[in-house]
Design brief:
23% strand, Nucleotidyltransferase, domain 5, globular, alpha/beta, 15 strands, six-stranded mixed β-sheet, 274 residues, five-stranded mixed β-sheet, 2 domains, 33% helix, single chain
């Protein structure tokens, strides 16, 4: 296939989460999902073998659809942890047996096709930067996801700086996500006004460190953006994410399309089983 072939074909993206594994077929030219996403519960315990089996189930369902990619097309997958060169380096929300597992090799062998794996917050951030609230913005875009913790994605002129983990910055002597995540707001019983003060402190620090052109706030809490974003004042625009629960799927597929040459060069059909 020519250099840009996968930029013009549908690709499958699969988003591994702590409670569900969901996937969809993505038009990577514009970030649209082709058809409805498909999801299965995340197995418990969420071991490598169990997750691989569930990912295979999602992939099989999507691959059987009329709009599916042709067999052997690279696939993008997200994982809720740090990923370095295809290897899992943190596993806070899945089984600890994932640590130091080569997830790309595992899934590629299980599915029989080349797989690129990316951190889930990075995937969501890339989707927003390429297709969502940050589309067309030059320079640095920061995407902050507020949920159980704080996720982050740092994108500079469309390219990702992976695994930033900005939720773990220390603010006023505390791990930022312990005070400013959506879950922290609920634990403390804070009003939206009270919460916005904590979020202001965190986001002002992020702005000072990175001088972005745009800050995008995602995660489930972005649906309540009207309750807190009007109270937050930064030098740069701050806007809610728009792709919501589909962002991880879209970002995973988009990254697989962008990196397809590298993915294919490092992949060969394997005979090993897991």
């Amino acid at each position: 296939m020519d250099e840009n072939s996968y930029q013009h074909k549908p690709l499958i993206g699969i988003d591994i989460g702590g409670t569900a594994i969901k996937g969809g077929i993505v038009n990577v030219q514009d970030g649209r999902l082709l058809g409805e996403p498909f999801r299965v519960p995340t197995p418990q315990p969420a071991t490598p073998q169990a997750i691989a089996e569930s990912v295979s189930r999602v992939a099989d369902e999507l691959s059987a659809r009329p709009e599916a990619p042709e067999p052997g097309t690279p696939m993008g997958v997200t994982f809720p942890g740090i990923i370095q060169r295809g290897v899992v380096r943190s596993a806070a929300n899945v089984d600890k047996s994932w640590l130091n597992t080569n997830i790309e090799a595992l899934l590629s062998a299980r599915l029989g096709l080349p797989v690129e794996v990316i951190n889930d917050a990075d995937a969501a951030g890339l989707a927003e930067a390429r297709y969502g609230a940050g589309a067309g913005v030059a320079g640095t875009v920061l995407v902050i996801t507020l949920g159980t913790g704080i996720g982050s994605a740092f994108i500079s002129d469309g390219r990702l700086v992976p695994n930033t983990e900005l939720g773990h910055l220390e603010i006023d002597g505390h791990n930022a996500e312990s005070k400013a995540s959506a879950a922290a707001r609920e634990r403390a019983g804070l009003s939206w006004n009270e919460y916005s003060l904590l979020l202001q402190r965190y986001l002002s620090h992020i702005e000072f460190l990175f001088s972005p052109e745009l800050v995008i706030v995602g995660g489930g809490i972005s649906e309540r953006a009207h309750d807190y974003l009007p109270h937050i004042k930064l030098r740069v625009p701050i806007v809610p994410a728009v792709l919501r629960n589909e962002a991880g799927i879209i970002g995973a597929a988009g990254e697989a399309a962008s990196n397809h040459q590298a993915i294919l060069s490092h992949w060969a059909p394997a005979t090993d089983t897991f």
